Amino acid sequence: MALSAKATCTWRLVDGKTQVIAYTLSGTAASAAVGPQTNAVRLSCITGNCLVRINGGTAASATQGALLKTTDYPAIFLCAGGDKVEVFGVAAGTLYLDELTG
Questions:
Q1: Positive or negative, the Cα torsion across 83, 14, 17, 73?
Q2: Global pTM?
Q3: Which residues are CB-neighbours of 43 under 8 A, at least 6 positions away?
Q4: What tens digit of pLDDT does each residue of 19-57 get?
Q5: Under a CB-based contact definition with an 8 Å cutoff, are residues 77 and 54 in contact?
Q6: CATH (residue range 19-101)
Q7: Between the CA atoms of 30, 33, 37 and 41, what dihedral angle is there, to the nearest 10 degrees?
């Protein structure tokens, strides 16, 4: 799907704020807390599908979270400063987290 000429991206990468999170099959992992300037995170798993949740009191699990697949485009999720990304591995893999501000 092509973007129209009117589409505008307002997100900017926060320099030096990329995290790499390794996870195992049926294992859980969490990112470090994002900075106070962060309004969203861009998530991309490069190996091994996973389920993710923005820290809201419930950790990601086999039944809790948004599925990210290695074949998906990077996904952007809104968050607040201090939030963490919780990961549950559907397979062993690596998740890249980029902090965004806008």
A1: positive
A2: 0.86
A3: 52, 68, 74, 75, 76, 77, 85, 95, 96, 97
A4: 999 999 999 999 999 999 999 999 999 999 999 999 866
A5: yes
A6: 2.60.120.10
A7: 0
